[in-house]
Design goal:
Layout (H helix, E strand, L loop, with lengths): L1 E5 L4 H12 L3 E6 L2 H7 L8 E4 L5 H8 L4 E4 L4 H15 L2 E4 L4 H10 L1 H7 L2 E3 L7 H10 L6 E10 L6 H9 L5 E4 L2 E4 L5 E5 L6 E6 L3 H9 L2 E9 H8 L18 E9 L4 E9 L5 H13 L7 E2 L2 H4 L2 H10 L3 E6 L1
Parallel strand pairs: 1-2, 1-4, 2-3, 4-5, 5-6, 6-15, 7-12
Antiparallel strand pairs: 7-13, 8-9, 10-11, 11-12, 13-14, 14-16
Helix pairs in contact: 1-11, 3-4, 4-5, 5-9, 7-9, 7-13
């Protein structure tokens, strides 16, 4: 299948292009600058189709998306890029995916583009990456054994955070208030919680800070839960805040960095607690198999559903996690 990748010269997008090739797809790389795009894809020796198309050039975007089965938007800030690219995807009748961690972008995408996507018979799936999609899959899997939950908590531990230039630009642009899901509704975060979280080894007990990201928006959309809380350990947040922190450095043949993560999710009601954890390496690199797996499952053959959805609404969450584990991308552990 021809799968377009917008922002294809970016750090995360290069992992996505490589993952699509590994899965037998034909990536269509779209970027705003010819020389940057050519440099980023030089190792493919012309094997990847390239198009130069900015978001302000709808005719060029339409030409780039023609004949594609899906487009994956990897270009943040998504507050700026999602709407025009979704518009182009709808015109082309192409399924749209992105990898945003920006709550405002994901919320706007789900609210504004559900009806237009249903009319066009296409899917719009925001935040199908490490932030957002992975937490949503874990929460959905954790709730397999309970009909509803009083509280879902997602705690992310990183041993470091080496931000890309795109991450820094997005942080500067994304000044919207963060929202939490409490009392069965989304509301502004008033005072972030801090607590000590007992992560599995090798992280152990860590001070965490409440940092709601796109997981909150996705989970609130489709899971029967009263409250959702999202935490990150504090050490990598200091890395992110420090302008001197370098970007990720490749240490293997796939270009992954030596940064490791763990995502720990609990779903609780009055009777029981379910917990599921995944561990892996490089938050940017692991986004590629997550979103590529979504494309494979949702765009192969005839899709019976259309509209804007959280990833966990559309797939068997536990099976996706098991598949990613079988590919060696993550390690999964779960227990009641």
């Amino acid at each position: 299948m021809r799968v377009a990748v917008y922002g294809a010269a970016g750090h995360t997008a290069r992992f996505v292009v490589a993952e699509l090739l590994r899965r037998g797809h034909s990536p269509v790389a779209i970027g705003r600058n010819e020389s940057t795009l050519a440099s980023a894809l030089a190792s493919y020796d012309g094997a990847v189709e390239r198009h130069v198309a900015g978001l302000g050039s709808p005719d060029l975007l339409d030409r780039a998306l023609a004949g594609a089965g899906a487009v994956i938007n990897c270009a943040g800030p998504f507050l700026d890029t999602a709407e025009p690219l979704i518009g182009a995807a709808l015109r082309a009748g192409v399924h749209y995916f992105d990898v945003t961690a920006e709550q405002g972008s994901a919320l706007s995408t789900l609210e504004r583009f559900d009806a237009p996507a249903r009319e066009r018979g296409t899917l719009v799936v925001p935040a199908a990456g490490f932030y957002g999609g992975l937490g949503d899959l874990l929460a959905t899997a954790a709730m397999r054994g309970i009909p509803s939950a009083e509280r879902i908590e997602i705690a992310i531990a990183l041993d470091s955070w080496w931000p890309t230039n795109g991450t820094r630009r997005t942080g500067e642009r994304n000044t919207l208030p963060r929202v939490v899901f409490a009392g069965g509704r989304l509301e502004p975060l008033q005072s972030p919680q801090t607590k000590l979280w007992d992560f599995p080894e090798p992280f152990g007990s860590q001070d965490v800070l409440e940092v709601p990201l796109t997981e909150t928006v996705l989970i609130a959309r489709h899971l029967p839960v009263r409250e959702v809380r999202n935490f990150i350990n504090q050490a990598p947040l200091h890395d992110l805040d420090d302008p001197a922190t370098p970007g990720p450095v490749a240490v293997d043949e796939r270009g992954r960095s030596n940064q490791h993560f763990l995502v720990d999710v609990t779903a609780r009601n009055a009777d029981v607690e379910y917990r599921i954890t995944v561990a892996g390496r490089d938050i940017y690199a692991v986004t590629a198999p997550i979103v590529a797996e979504a494309v494979d499952r949702l765009c192969a053959g005839r899709q019976s559903r259309a509209g804007a959805f959280a990833l966990g609404e559309l797939v068997d969450a536990y099976d996706v996690l098991e598949t990613l584990a079988g590919l060696g991308e993550i390690v999964v552990a779960s227990h009641a």
